[in-house]
Specification:
mainly alpha; 67% helix
């Protein structure tokens, strides 16, 4: 008894196209029903034909469509791009950094802007008035910081840091720029405004 070739088992000729081979396989699979042995015979014949076509393709004798599935190869999914993690702030900064709402930014901003305007645009402002404005700014910073997490000690520490850095830094910068700013503000007014800016940043974006 002569064993049937894979083409005979699928009922196609040796010069059949891949579409014809796939259609024959689909038709026979549907006809197999629950006959597992017959189904395996059809699949084996189909794979044998594909293997032969692969060999002919490697020898340059035929051209096989790129999307064809061969028995010994698995479809490989394209490698997934691994997104690099976004840079994060240092741990110590994350512990005090806040994500304020627009209201939490505007309320201190309006207050410190008003205090700055009073300290700058009133030429008759003296040292005592500037000191009073600083007291109001410090108390406001303590209020805004304490309201966030109810931690008075941290609120005092952050406010004191802003006050010291603002006054010392503002005094040094103001002294260096004294000739440029003399016609607008005094060194004391400049350091007071810079302190208000720092207190606004601290009370809005720190906790």
């Amino acid at each position: 008894m002569i064993e049937q070739s894979p083409y005979d088992k699928l009922g196609v000729s040796e010069d059949a196209t891949f579409d014809e081979i796939q259609e024959a396989r689909t038709r026979l699979v549907q006809q197999c029903g629950n006959d597992q042995q017959l189904l395996e015979t059809v699949e084996a014949a189909y794979d044998a034909i594909l293997m032969e076509r692969l060999r002919l393709r490697q020898e340059g004798k035929i051209k096989v469509p790129e999307g064809i599935r061969f028995a010994e190869t698995a479809i490989q999914s394209p490698p997934k791009e691994v997104s690099s993690p976004a840079p994060q702030a240092p741990a110590w900064l994350q512990g005090i950094q806040d994500k304020p709402s627009l209201t939490e930014i505007l309320m201190p901003g309006v207050l410190y802007l008003g205090l700055s305007c009073i300290g700058v645009f009133y030429s008759a402002v003296g040292a005592q008035i500037l000191q009073f404005l600083l007291i109001v700014g410090v108390c406001s910073s303590l209020y805004f910081l304490y309201r966030k997490e109810q931690k008075f000690g941290r609120a005092v520490l952050l406010t004191a840091t802003g006050l010291i850095v603002g006054l010392i830094g503002g005094g040094l910068i103001g002294s260096l720029l004294q000739t440029q700013i003399a016609s607008i503000v005094t060194v004391e007014q400049f350091s007071t405004v810079l302190t208000f800016v720092l207190l606004w940043v601290i009370s809005s974006f720190l906790r």
